[in-house]
């Protein structure tokens, strides 16, 4: 039976926000998990070439904001900027780098990583980015944003709160969930309000001024239900409610809800494509071979193994999805096969 609200209970999203703020403020090296840009430099190079094409599709604006949300160690943006400086000098000349990051320690790491390429401007929120043509990247950013969890029991809707490292169910009104969800009794449904606010903001912004945003994340495209909250501590799965701030807390991104919200706010959406298909279309294998032929046998094996890890369906290729939001009227961004909706 659901318990009444305990005096110090915290709603799950407040708990997750607090725990992750502490985690990201104290673990600058993100040692508990390895992300795509840390696996292979080719990931960032392909996104650099992607951004250069998007800039051309926008009509080569003389000034453009190149932004990243949640840049971690700064590896992705460093690889992106290295590629752009080398292969797209006109774009390099036009861009200003902006980073969305809340952790001061992460900002320090990013400043160092980007020192050879740019002097970025930092912001706390995507909504704080200056106006103007925008190209925005976000890899494993949305999955760190706090979620709420609801469950429909025989005695009505309840929401999950946290106290003393355990969940408490608290009666609530029916949540405002995106349409199309098949709700099963006693099954958890998740709602990531900050992600939907970002989708709405970008949709409205892109209707008024040119822009394209690319989000890559652990997630699903069809609207699923179920508990996807997970914790990684010392690179191992951990209990999500124990030792708040010591583990990285994430939840799968509901790309259906994210895309629908951006569309309602007037953006065009592309995807969610699988990461494997997206990267292969952008030339993952070709670029990897190009580097491998110039590398030692050992390094060539590492590069090929990394490409496999990023794209193979049983590795990250299917688990990770890619979605773009764009101003209406712009050509399709590269990497999205027409009609692909897997
Ligand atoms: N994109 C990087 C790191 C992903 S980890 C990579 O692919 O390696 C998540 C990043 O988002 C970290 O830099 C973290 O500090 C930042 N972050 C987490 N929550 C945030 C929030 N609410 N606002 C801004 N940045 C946030």
Q: How big a fraction of the residues is strand?
A: 15-25%
Q: What order do the helices and strands follow?
A: EHHHEHHEHEEEEEEHEEEEEHEHHHHE
Average pLDDT value? 92
By DSSP, the count of extended strands is: 16
Task: Note the total helix count.
Answer: 12
Cofactors, ions, other ligands: S-adenosyl-L-homocysteine
Radius of gyration: 20 Å
Unreliable segments of 5+ consecutive residues: none
Query: Helix coverage percent of residues?
Result: 25-40%
Main β-sheet, in a few words?
8 strands, mixed
Q: What class would the helix/strand composition place it in?
A: alpha/beta
Q: What's the SSE blueprint?
A:
Layout: E1 10-11, H1 12-26, H2 36-39, H3 41-57, E2 64-69, H4 75-87, H5 89-94, E3 95-100, H6 104-114, E4 121-123, E5 134-139, E6 148-153, E7 156-163, E8 166-171, E9 188-191, H7 193-208, E10 211-220, E11 230-233, E12 236-238, E13 248-250, E14 253-254, H8 255-264, E15 268-274, H9 275-282, H10 284-294, H11 297-311, H12 313-317, E16 320-326
Parallel strand pairs: 2-3, 2-5, 3-4, 5-10, 10-14
Antiparallel strand pairs: 1-7, 6-7, 6-9, 7-8, 10-16, 11-12, 11-13, 15-16
Bound molecules: S-adenosyl-L-homocysteine.
S-adenosyl-L-homocysteine (SAH) binds at residues 20, 24, 30, 35, 37-38, 70-72, 76, 100-103, 106, 139-141, 144-145.
Give a written overview of the molecule:
The chain has 342 residues and is α/β, with parallel strands linked by helices. The protein has helices spanning 12-26, 36-39, 41-57, 75-87, 89-94, 104-114, 193-208, 255-264, 275-282, 284-294, 297-311, 313-317; strands spanning 10-11, 64-69, 95-100, 121-123, 134-139, 148-153, 156-163, 166-171, 188-191, 211-220, 230-233, 236-238, 248-250, 253-254, 268-274, 320-326. A hairpin with a 2-residue loop joins strand 6 and strand 7 (156-163). The chain binds S-adenosyl-L-homocysteine (SAH). The site of S-adenosyl-L-homocysteine has 20 residues, from helix 1 and helix 2.
């Amino acid at each position: 039976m659901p318990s009444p609200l305990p005096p110090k209970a915290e709603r799950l999203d407040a708990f997750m926000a607090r725990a992750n703020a502490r985690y990201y403020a104290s673990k600058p090296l993100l040692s508990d998990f390895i992300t795509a840009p840390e696996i292979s430099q080719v990931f960032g190079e392909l996104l650099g070439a992607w951004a250069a094409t998007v800039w051309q599709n926008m009509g080569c604006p003389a000034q453009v904001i190149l932004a990243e949300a949640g840049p971690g160690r700064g590896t992705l943006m460093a690889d992106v900027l290295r590629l752009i400086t080398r292969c797209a000098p006109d774009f390099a000349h036009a861009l200003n780098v902006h980073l969305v990051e809340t952790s001061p320690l992460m900002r320090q790491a990013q400043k160092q990583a980007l020192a050879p390429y740019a002097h970025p401007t930092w912001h706390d929120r995507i909504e704080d980015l200056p106006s103007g043509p925008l190209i925005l990247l976000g890899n494993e950013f949305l999955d760190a944003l706090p979620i709420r969890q609801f469950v429909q029991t025989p005695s009505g809707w309840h929401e999950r709160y946290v106290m003393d490292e355990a969940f408490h169910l608290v009666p609530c009104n029916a949540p405002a969930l995106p349409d199309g969800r098949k709700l099963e009794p006693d099954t958890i449904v998740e709602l990531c309000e900050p992600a939907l606010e970002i989708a709405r903001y970008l949709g409205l912004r892109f209707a008024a001024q040119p822009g394209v945003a690319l989000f890559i994340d652990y997630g699903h495209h069809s609207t699923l239900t179920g508990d996807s909250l997970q914790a990684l501590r010392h690179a191992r799965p951990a209990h999500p409610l124990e030792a708040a701030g010591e583990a990285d807390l994430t939840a799968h991104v509901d790309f259906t809800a994210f895309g629908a919200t951006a569309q309602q706010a007037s953006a065009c959406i592309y995807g969610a494509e699988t990461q494997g298909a997206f990267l292969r279309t952008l030339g993952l294998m070709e670029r990897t071979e190009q580097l491998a032929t110039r590398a030692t046998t050992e390094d060539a094996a590492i590069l090929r193994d990394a490409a496999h890890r990023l794209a193979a369906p049983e590795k990250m290729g299917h688990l990770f999805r890619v979605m773009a939001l764009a101003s209406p009227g712009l050509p399709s961004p590269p990497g999205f096969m027409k009609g692909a909706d897997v």
